[in-house]
Design goal:
The complex is a heterodimer of chains A (113) and B (114). Chain A contains no helices and twelve strands. Chain A is an all-beta fold and 113 residues long. In chain A, a hairpin with a 4-residue loop joins strand 8 (64-68) and strand 9. Classes of the chains: A mainly beta (113), B mainly beta (114).
């Protein structure tokens, strides 16, 4: 079965620190890649997505992610986090050959003011 | 613009009872997904409906879980003989065509089994 791995379960940072959250997925052909965010008490919402083209994708709120095909990775980054970035972050992968879509287990980010 | 809605928002039930959770997807969205979100367990895929195709039930954890989608729109997730380990937030999402398109999530139903 295809899978998505997020290596960090809980990350704690101080404001202005840089962030990188890892996401790896199993091989299965061409993929579409997503990062979702869930702020406390809110719905899951899309942060950014990659379908094709430039492997460095810019999303909302200063987030970006880089698709590295050779590493089957799609890590999320932000140069300087804010307290308001405290949330849970989910990586999701769609394998196009069979339309399978899977989410990672999520990474809880806590940003200390 | 209506988003994905789910009802009830909270459900408390006794162990052994059956429950039904409802999802109204965004109008026109042909794909519908159910997920379970448990504390510390992340987002667990349950079932996926795409148009009139047979649903992908590969994520259902046991035969106590079932789901149907009537008329290609509203979906109901049924849990029979609930157990305490079924306590979780059940999320529904819909997307416009194929699974590769962005999913829009509902607010979830928080199920507590006593």
């Amino acid at each position: 079965a295809q899978s998505v791995s997020q290596h960090n379960h809980h990350v704690i940072l101080s404001e202005a620190a840089s962030l990188e959250l890892g996401c790896n997925y199993s091989y299965g052909g061409t993929v579409n890649l997503f990062w979702y965010v869930q702020y406390p008490g809110q719905h899951l919402q899309l942060l950014l997505k990659y379908f094709s083209g430039d492997p460095l994708v810019k999303g909302i709120k200063g987030f970006e992610a880089e698709f590295i095909k050779s590493k089957f990775s799609f890590n999320l980054r932000k140069p300087s986090v804010q307290w308001s970035d405290t949330a849970e972050y989910f990586c999701a992968v769609n394998w196009r050959n069979n339309n399978d879509m899977r989410f990672g287990a999520g990474t809880r980010l806590t940003v200390k003011p | 613009g209506a988003g994905v809605s789910q009802s009830p928002s909270n459900k408390v039930t006794e162990k052994g009872k059956d429950v039904e959770l409802r999802c109204d997807p965004i109008s026109g969205h042909t794909a519908l997904y159910w997920y379970r979100q448990s504390l510390g367990q992340g987002l667990e895929f349950l079932i996926y409906f795409q148009g009139n195709s047979a649903p992908d039930k590969s994520g259902l954890p046991s035969d106590r879980f079932s789901a149907e989608r009537t008329g290609g729109s509203v979906s109901t997730l049924t849990i029979q003989r609930t157990q305490q380990e079924d306590s979780a937030v059940y999320l529904c999402a819909s997307s416009s065509r194929l699974a590769g398109i962005e999913q829009f999530f509902g607010p979830g139903t928080r199920l507590t089994v006593l």
